């Protein structure tokens, strides 16, 4: 049986699981949340509405959405006891390290929601979900302010992304960019990151949840998994790559040659599942153009990205390996246009992915048949041997 994949409620000793949250067809480039195509959600929905869909399984009524928005808005601040936690980090600490630690510490302020008693934690699930979706954004903004040596900006009574931009940049700048579509572009960015089947970080959340750990601990582990450059760290790596290409005066063609020789990796390209265009990349590519136009900004990195995409889509090396742009390829250009520093890009991915992590934790916690995830291995080590005394080694 080794190597074969058999379905099991919660991995058990296999590498697959069953879920009804998100469907992906990698060959056809299809992505649906609870049956709704990502293109229709991008066109008609909002981050918080899609978050409710991903978490609860249905598009919310107007009343439910309003109540959820109020719950999120009400939870925007964090306990003053946590403000001093920021003093403990060096100013050059990576924002993902801070985010993961702060999310886990958050649980300590809500013992009734982080008891590791499944029934008790589930009884508080709705409050915990709204609280995490709201406070992950506040912690991100406070991290930015701490690293910039600026005072924290308290949350205002604004919509989700408007409040985030307010806490990041305070009033004047925020008004300008919000009036120029930054809030809308950021809402779309977050929505497109809401969930994505069993990616590395979501599988990590399920793994931790399967042992009975609370939601705070599970999403904190998800942040650590997302941090890697092959996963959520790729959006930072894409901008770094585009800036290096630009600085070298290359229009992308030299870089493509280097990638084909295996001397460089085209970050933001390729995917474990999509062997076709990532539908999110298409939508983000259009949004990148839109936000730059409405802010009245030109960004040479967008031209280079377009050139790389064109070259790769026509090149045998990339075609034969089914390498297409993924969600990270254009997302950094949008964040950069809004004024979010590159170092915060993966944190932005984590804010967007929070609903998906929460939904997957819920799916494990609510399933009476779910068992601790315990993948097996194919042992390739030494066969049995006897102990050697020190003087015989
Ligand atoms: C995300 O799982 C998810 O859903 C993740 C995500 C989500 O929403 O959660 O979609 C978000 O993580 C998107 C992926 C972001 N990462 C990157 O953009 C980093 C660059 N991409 C590569 O690291 C890579 O494409 C992976 C890790 C994403 C996928 O790797 P695979 O499917 O295991 O592909 P592979 O490593 O087996 O490569 C197959 C071939 C190899 O060449 P050969 O050995 O056959 O000669 O393709 C080459 C690779 O060298 N290749 C690339 C490449 N990616 C793969 N060559 C150049 N540039 C690339 N980006």
UniProtKB/TrEMBL annotation:
It catalyses: oxaloacetate + acetyl-CoA + H2O = citrate + CoA + H(+). Pathway: Carbohydrate metabolism; tricarboxylic acid cycle; isocitrate from oxaloacetate: step 1/2. One of its GO terms (molecular function) is citrate synthase activity. The keyword Lipid biosynthesis does not apply. It comes from the Bacteria. Pfam families: Citrate_synt. Keywords: Acyltransferase, Transferase, Tricarboxylic acid cycle. Belongs to the citrate synthase family. This is Citrate synthase. It comes from Thalassobacterium sedimentorum.
């Amino acid at each position: 049986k080794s190597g074969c994949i058999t379905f099991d409620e919660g991995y058990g000793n296999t590498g697959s699981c069953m879920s009804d949250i998100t469907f992906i067809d990698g060959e056809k480039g299809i992505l649906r949340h609870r049956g709704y195509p990502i293109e229709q959600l991008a066109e008609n929905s909002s981050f918080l509405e899609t978050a409710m869909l991903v978490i609860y399984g249905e598009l919310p009524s107007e009343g439910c959405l309003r109540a959820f928005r109020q719950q999120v808005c009400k939870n925007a601040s964090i306990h003053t006891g946590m403000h001093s936690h920021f003093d403990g980090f060096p100013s050059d600490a990576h924002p993902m390290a801070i985010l993961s630690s702060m999310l886990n510490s958050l649980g300590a302020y809500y013992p009734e929601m982080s008891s590791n008693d499944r029934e008790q934690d589930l009884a508080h699930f709705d409050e915990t979900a709204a609280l995490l979706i709201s406070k992950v954004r506040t912690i991100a903004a406070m991290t930015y302010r701490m690293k910039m040596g600026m005072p924290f900006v308290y949350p205002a009574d604004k919509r989700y992304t408007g409040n985030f931009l307010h806490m990041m940049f305070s009033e004047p700048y925020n008004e300008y960019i919000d009036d120029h579509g930054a809030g809308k572009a950021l809402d779309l960015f977050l929505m497109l990151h809401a969930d994505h089947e069993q990616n590395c970080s979501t599988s990590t959340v399920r793994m931790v949840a399967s042992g009975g750990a609370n939601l705070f601990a599970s999403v904190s582990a998800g942040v650590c998994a997302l941090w890697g450059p092959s996963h959520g760290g790729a959006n930072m790596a894409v901008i770094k790559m585009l800036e290096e290409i630009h600085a070298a005066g290359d229009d992308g063609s030299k870089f493509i040659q280097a990638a084909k020789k295996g001397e460089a990796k085209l970050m933001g390209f390729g995917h474990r599942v999509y062997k076709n265009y990532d539908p999110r990349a298409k939508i983000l590519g259009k949004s990148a153009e839109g936000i730059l136009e409405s802010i009245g900004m030109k960004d040479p990195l967008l031209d280079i990205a377009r050139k790389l995409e064109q070259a790769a889509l026509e090149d045998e090396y990339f075609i034969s390996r089914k390498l297409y742009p993924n969600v990270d390829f254009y997302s950094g250009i949008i964040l950069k246009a809004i004024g979010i520093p590159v170092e915060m890009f993966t944190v932005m991915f984590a804010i967007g992915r929070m609903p998906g992590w929460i939904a997957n934790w819920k799916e494990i916690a609510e399933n009476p048949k779910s068992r601790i995830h315990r993948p097996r291995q194919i042992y390739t080590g030494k066969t049995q041997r006897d102990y050697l005394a020190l003087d015989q080694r």
